[in-house]
Design brief:
By secondary structure, the chain is mainly alpha-helical. The chain has one domain. Helix content is 65%, strand content 4%. It has a two-stranded antiparallel sheet with strand order 1-2. The longest helix has 25 residues. It is globular.
Length: 212
């Protein structure tokens, strides 16, 4: 039997992340921004800088179903991305999926007029924010073929930036700062953008060559 040396096989990032994972990672930030923008347009006197997106899903909102379904559909996108990100560390993928679940549960535990931030809503939102902020810490890899967004330095930088934005949101919410809505949206966009960046870094990496 001829020696296998010299037989070359190629493996690309596209095969590492299935096409449906690429679609879900692109869809999440697009649907998030489109959803909260549509819900805000339907809500009279809504101020996107001052008011939170949670208020758009409250029972007293004009069309709460828009933001409610946005939470759910975007959460499903995160779950799909978590399953698809095969090059990432498993702990990070599980944390991402857990954060997505927390975000989806926010939809069924909305804020109310009587209790602005009920305990179930706070718990679910906290799980969602924690998962979407910390998952890069469990997703990093080492090695020359590691996509840039999964390298330790990039993962650490991502966690630091995401944590800073979430801290800004939490501080504004706690102290009643009038920019709490802006802080929440900045954190939400960043949390949605990082899974997309990781997926694109996996897809765009140079093909690796293996000699038999």
């Amino acid at each position: 039997m001829p020696h296998a040396t010299g037989i070359v096989a190629y493996r690309s990032g596209v095969r590492d992340v299935p096409w449906w994972g690429v679609v879900s990672s692109v869809a999440a930030p697009v649907l998030l921004v489109t959803g909260w923008s549509a819900a805000a347009d339907l809500q009279p006197h809504f101020n996107p800088v001052r008011d939170t997106v949670s208020s758009l899903a409250a029972p007293y909102a004009t069309d709460p179903w828009v933001m409610t379904w946005t939470f759910i559909v975007v959460g499903v996108c995160y779950v799909i991305t978590g399953f698809a990100l095969r090059p990432a560390g498993r702990p990070g993928r599980l944390i991402l999926i857990a954060g997505a679940a927390g975000g989806m549960l926010v939809a069924v535990n909305p804020v109310s007029a009587d209790v602005p931030y009920p305990l179930p809503h706070i718990i679910c939102a906290s799980v969602g924010l924690a998962g979407l902020t910390t998952w890069p810490a469990g997703a990093w890899r080492r090695g020359p073929g590691t996509p840039w967004a999964l390298r330790p330095a990039a993962a650490a930088a991502a966690v630091a930036v995401l944590f800073g934005l979430v801290f800004w949101f939490g501080a504004d919410l706690l102290f009643g700062v009038a920019q709490v809505g802006l802080a929440e949206r900045a954190a939400g966009v960043a949390e949605a953008a990082w899974p997309l960046a990781v997926v694109l870094s996996c897809v765009a990496r140079p093909a690796r060559r293996y000699a038999g």
